[in-house]
Design goal:
Blueprint (H helix, E strand, L loop, with lengths): L2 H18 L4 H19 L6 H6 L4 H17 L8 H17 L3 H20 L10 H15 L4 H13 L3 H14 L4 H13 L8 H21 L17 H17 L10 H6 L1
Helix pairs in contact: 1-2, 2-7, 4-5, 5-6, 7-8, 8-9, 9-10, 10-11, 10-12, 11-12
Length: about 280
């Protein structure tokens, strides 16, 4: 049995449990962690089914051709010059619906495939797109289901907030993360993510700078301590986001280090220097 087989069987088992007890939040949460691990299996460890591996577009010439075709579609729908990813997806969506109305279903299906291909690029750029076939999106929906069934569970608030932060919905993410912190003030990972959410706000942390710095440092200290003690080494990544494979958190620590460069010695609570943070 491969790792993917094991994860898929676990997901099927939890989905079956949900069918029998749909109002048990724990089952929704456990399914979410397995779905999220399926995403990491592909994105971090490169594990894919054979038919998926055969379908991967590795030819840069084909990719260039697709991009040129998308740019042409953008021009047709009034998006000129250097278009953003959002504008490209919007143009493809407009083209898809137009073709559907004209009865050109074959061409519409091709445009839909182009849209899916471009959406995957959105995920690789650091913004997770809500593609329903993406296991990370499915995991997010299950975390939300778990939370809707138990609003007093800090862990469910935390994971919904963490995923919203991945989607760059900072304001909404901060609300859920602060709820989690209120329910579980001792959680280092929650404090760390609240600090990261402050940092990710438009215009930076502002008046919450000291709070953000303190929380991020505590998170970094916990991460370094866990590396030494190997705490959480046997857990799924979704169960232990405070680890070195969490690129969202690592990029946050880089921003934390750069923030410290601008603060000088204004905050006496900060023991680490910018150089130490960036070095680590």
């Amino acid at each position: 049995m491969s790792v993917l087989d094991a994860l898929n069987q676990a997901a099927a088992a939890y989905a079956s449990a949900i069918k029998h007890q749909p109002k048990n939040p724990r089952f929704h949460f456990l399914l979410a962690t397995v779905l999220e691990e399926l995403y990491y299996a592909a994105e971090i460890y490169g594990l894919k089914k054979k038919n998926e591996e055969e379908g991967i577009d590795t030819c840069s010439a084909k990719a260039t051709g697709k991009d040129e075709e998308i740019q042409a579609i953008c021009k047709l729908h009034g998006f000129t010059g250097r278009t953003s990813l959002e504008q490209q997806l919007k143009a493809l969506d407009m083209e898809y619906h137009q073709l559907k109305e004209q009865g050109q279903s074959g061409r519409a299906d091709y445009i839909q495939n182009l849209y899916a291909w471009k959406s995957k690029q959105a995920g690789k750029s650091g913004v997770i797109s809500l593609d329903e076939e993406n296991p990370l999106t499915q995991a997010f929906l299950k975390y939300k289901d778990a939370l809707s069934l138990d609003l007093h569970n800090w862990l469910y608030h935390f994971h919904v907030g963490r995923h919203l932060l991945l989607q760059k919905q900072t304001k909404e993410a901060l609300m859920f993360l602060q709820n989690a912190l209120g329910l579980q003030p001792a959680s280092a990972i929650t404090r760390c993510y609240v600090g990261l959410a402050f940092l990710e706000q438009d215009g930076g942390p502002g008046a919450r700078t000291q709070e953000s710095v303190t929380y991020l440092q505590q998170g970094m200290e916990k991460l370094l301590n866990d590396l030494v003690t190997q705490e959480g080494s046997g857990l799924l990544l979704a169960e232990n986001p405070l680890c070195i494979f969490n690129t969202q958190l690592l990029s946050g620590f880089v921003k934390f280090g750069k923030l410290l460069e601008t603060l000088s010695n204004r905050f006496s609570l900060t023991l680490m220097s910018s150089h130490q943070v960036l070095h680590m």
